[in-house]
Amino acid sequence: MLKGDSKTGWRGVDKSRSLGGKTDVFLDAYEEMFVISIRNIEAILETGDFREAQARIEKLERRSARHSRLRQLREAIRYVESAKKLSRLGKFSEAQAKLNEAFCVHAESEVIRQMQKQCSASLEKSHELTRTLYSALHAEDWNQVAALAEQLLKMSPENIVARDARRRAWSQVGTPSGVSRVLSGTHVWVGDRTTMEINASLRGVAVNPSKSKKRFNLWLDAVGGYLVCPSEIVMLGQATAASQIAVPILADISRRHAKICRKGDGYLIEPLARVAIEDQEIQEVTLLTDGDLVELGKSVRFRFRQPHPLSATARLEFLSGHRTQPSADAVILMAESCVLGPHWRNHVVCRDWPGDLVLFWQDGELHCRSDEPFEVDGKMSDGLSRLQPNSRVSTDCFSMSLEGV
Hints:
By secondary structure, the chain is α+β, with helices and mostly antiparallel strands. The protein is about 35% helix and about 25% strand. A hairpin with a 3-residue loop joins strand 10 and strand 11 (about 300-305).
């Protein structure tokens, strides 16, 4: 940061005025500080931190500073912020026009030039995806509709067309209104198997998630361990003896570092200490998208995954070698259901399993369903069974156990 924009520099100018009034020395110092401050604002703008640049402009204006360059910078920021909002709505053509106006008033800005290029590429990709989406809607290919809508929403999270298409896909994939849309969509996860079997087995089951659902550890023989968090709001932080947070991590981070909240189909992360997404530090609540690389502090890194667009359940995959307490290979943010099995889009991939096993909530209690015969706590099941906090499920090919936290 340029020292001329420091508090010390401006204090010197103010002291000069208080001692001698508006002398030539004061006016020269004031003009020099003003020019340096504008250069500093331009440097901040080039980092992409438009909010901080705007705050610096407002601070400078409070000193009764009036300058055409200051007005130009303020106007460029206004156009950029407008372009950002339009991009979130999927209106890339209008966003591009705003960025062009921003570049007209601040033509030397490389960051605005790069934003223009990115917006142009997004406009082309959006047009292509939207055309394909309409074709999929016409053909009533609902799996493709959901996938295309998800791609559009990753580019523009408030895209009305994509949101409506995804709702239509969900309504078509589901069958009875009493079944949750996540459960009714589980048939698409099983790949090349008999795709309607799991869905048919759950028909007529009313899913009524309870706020009292508790965390549990899921241990899968020859696969790994998973911390399952069914709450809509999950706190992440440092593992301590008195920790009451949902995801305690053995790392040098804050005791309450970040909060992840499930809202409908998606997830929001709120930074309570340093959080970065794709190496960009965030300061406010931010939408997570499938594949995002998240960093807590300076060392904890994990990948946020939502394996299938028809499921609200997500997975946090640790990439930095850190583990929870007790130790787990990954964290499952479980909504209404969680599917385990050999397919790559399952929430927990168990490559050697012959088929899928579905965990789901019914009346606040955890149940499981599989097309393979299985035992629960030593008793044979007819394919659908309620689980206890410390149940063990086993077949001839695999076994798993639950452990309350």
